[in-house]
Amino acid sequence: MKVYVIYHRTDFDGRGSAAVINDFYRNKEGFEIVNIPLNNEEVPHDYKEWDKDAMVYMSDISFPKREQMEYLLETYGDNFIWNDHHASSMKNCEGLNIRGIQRADYAAIQLTWFWFNQDKFSSIETAKFPEAINYVGHVDIKKPLKDSEEFLTALILHTELYDPTNPDWEKLINNDEGMLSTLLTEGRVAQRYRESIEQEAAQEIIHFVEFEGYKVPAANIYFFKYEVFFHAKEGNLYEEYPFVITYYRNNEGQWKLSLRGTGNEKYKDIDVSLLAKKHGGGGHKKAAGIRSKELPFKYL
Questions:
Q1: What is the rounded distance in angstroms from the CA atom of residue 98 to the CA atom of residue 108?
Q2: Among 260, 245, 249, which residue's Cα sits nearest to residue 298?
Q3: Would the pLDDT of 263 be above 80?
Q4: pTM (two decimals)
Q5: Phi, psi of 292 (to 5 degrees)
Q6: Residue 282 has pLDDT above 90, yes or no
């Protein structure tokens, strides 16, 4: 039986979700795993040609059009499992009775792990997640734990872990203390270097723009993104404004923007996914993205 694993390929919430699914089927006979890494808005051109008796898992992503999600539901029924936490995707699929867990307060990697382990706990709130799952998840939902940023930095260094079939994922999912300790040690060193680069970059690239009626800090940067605002000359701009914007132009001529809402209680009701949606983007309440041929803001 084929098992299609569709996942968001550009971050460890998606990659880790796929790793959890691969780990579940790792030693089970009779299953052929087909991993399908996608970015937002991407859809496999042959998805209507897939085996109709397969299992289909989708984590940390959705197909952009409601009718595409309806097709998967109608074709695979209970064999279609969707674990996701993106507000815009859930809104798009509102009313569809798709199996899986869709909720915004947990990362996709946590939702996916819990899907396979829910019989062990009374609720997701009581679940005892593996440390690696928690580290990745809490960074992704903007509620980092002690050492979670360092752990994620180490994962970025280990490009072999971009592959969800890598056997080291099995160690992480099973709380291998030696591997966790090694990654945390590496991550702490790398994080210190990263912060030194952010401090230097912040002095040169931060500026202000007007976007959807808001004056906010922005930076034309690919690496590090919102963390650069921690080190501005004026102080931690990330906490002083309703959201921040990072952007860059990719090799296809598109501008890619990331909107990151702050933790300032004053701006708790601002939903950047709704702002992004006005420009064809989407995401979470406090983290969203846009792709555009033109920059959708005005320089100040």
A1: 15
A2: 245
A3: no
A4: 0.80
A5: -155, 145
A6: no
Nearest to 62 by CA among 33, 85, 35: 85
Calculate the CA 16 to chain-centre distance: 10
Extended strands (E) in the chain: 2-8, 32-38, 55-59, 80-83, 206-211, 214-220, 243-249, 255-261, 282-283, 287-292, 298-299
Q: What is the reported pLDDT for 264?
A: 80
Kindly tell me if the per-residue pLDDT of 230 is higher than 90.
no
If we measure between CA atoms, which residue out of 116, 155, 123, 118 comes closest to residue 136?
155
The predicted-structure confidence for 21-54, as pLDDT tens digits, reads as follows: 999 999 899 999 999 999 888 999 999 999 999 9
DSSP state of 9: T
Q: Which residues contact 178 (CB under 8 A, 6 or more apart)?
A: none
Provide the b/e sequence for 57-91 (b: ≥16 CB within 10 Å): bbbbbbbbeeeebeebbeebeebbbbbbbbbbbbe
| CA R_g for the chain | 20
Q: If DSSP states are collapsed to H, E and C, what string results for 94-128?
A: CCCCCECCECCCCCHHHHHHHHHHHHHCCCHHHCC
As given in the structure block, the two tokens for residue 252 are 């296809």
| Cα gap 111→141, rounded to integer Å | 12
